[in-house]
Amino acid sequence: MISASSESPSSDWRSLYPFESHWLDLPCGRIHYVDEGPRSATCEAATPTLLLVHGNPTWSFHWRTLIHALRPHYRCVAPDHLGCGWSDKPSRLLKLDDHIKNLLALIDRLDLQNVTLVAQDWGGAIGLGAMLRARQRLERIVLTNTGAFPPESIPRRIRVCRMPIVGRLAVQGANLFSRAALQMTLARRRRLEPAVAAGYLAPYDSWNHRRAVYGFVRDIPAGPRHPTWQTLVNIEAELPSLADRPALLVWGMRDWCFRPDCLERFVAAWPQAEVHRLADVGHWVLEDAPEDALPLVERFLAATASRQPAEPLSR
After folding, report:
1. Is there a catalytic annotation at residue 255?
2. What CA–CA distance (Å, rounded) separates 37 from 19?
3. I need a surface site. Which of 16, 123, 140, 244 has the fewest CB within 10 A?
């Protein structure tokens, strides 16, 4: 479990997240991750692994409902990106490529096989960027409201948060980005339960602990001069190469950030994907409509369980 020194003043949320903590030491810092569910003794009979990759301003807490439901049958690995959750908080602002490399290090160190990538928000670009470099390990893809390509535009409310002085004071100082997310990510539900809201905010309790929240906002590229723009261009160019993997796309159609046009870009790359458009749901699909999303994921995993990866698995 998370050490007592990491406790939030409001600890009700901990009953929602009763998972054992694991740690991976990297040269750039220590990454925290959850690793729940069965293991297999051999690679040949590897237990299917769900790699759950969160976005901003969340952490592995976002996946608690899926982990509770699916860990009896799947290995569920949910890391906190460096700077997020209970991972170390480096002093510099990280780029997309840094997070991709860190996730690759976790995948390699744990030797994850038969991977189903489950991702949302920034997790789509990070997770797909990593799996494209380790595609022999990737079996299936499950995405909710995310992107893996240069943005066509940046929403005004995010542009304000990117301002060097005012934006940083609001995001990293007053924690307004994280607090606003508790409501602005929802459409069907008006508010989160207090314990759930406390869980999302728990790791982001100081200026230094919110550095990565601001870093992700700053890393959204507005044009080709930004280094992350080319990283996203490269990922988008390779998306069609994953069209042979089973894919599930569950989209909240009232998301003002990763709007329906983002979904259509994935559909163009993966025309075989199973697509579900949830008309009255916002950005955090698993919080806004768990009663819809969870059965869709469970049915998809069961229906595609017998399919073998397109490339042989290697250790």
Report:
1. yes
2. 11
3. 244
Residue 88 catalytic? no
CB 251 within 8 A of CB 144: yes
- Residue 181 carries which side chain, given as an amino acid letter? A
Strand spans (E) along 244-298: 247-252, 274-278
Inter-residue contact 54 to 121 (CB < 8 Å): yes
Give the Cα separation of 84 and 87 in Å (integer): 6
What does the domain layout of the chain look like in residue ranges?
Answer: 16-152+223-303
Taking each helix axis as running N to C, give the angle between helix 122-132 and helix 227-238, from 0 to 180 degrees, rounded to the nearest 10.
60
159, 265 in Cβ contact below 8 A?
A: no
* Catalytic entry in 99, 219, 283, 288: 283
Q: Which residues contact 177 (CB under 8 A, 6 or more apart)?
A: 57, 161, 170, 171, 213, 214, 217
- 81 included as an active-site residue: no
- Point out the catalytic residue in the list 255, 261, 280, 288: 255
- Cβ atoms of 125 and 232 within 8 Å: the answer is yes
Q: Which of 35, 121, 219, 288 is catalytic?
A: 121
Return the CATH architecture of domain 16-152+223-303: 3-Layer(aba) Sandwich (3.40)
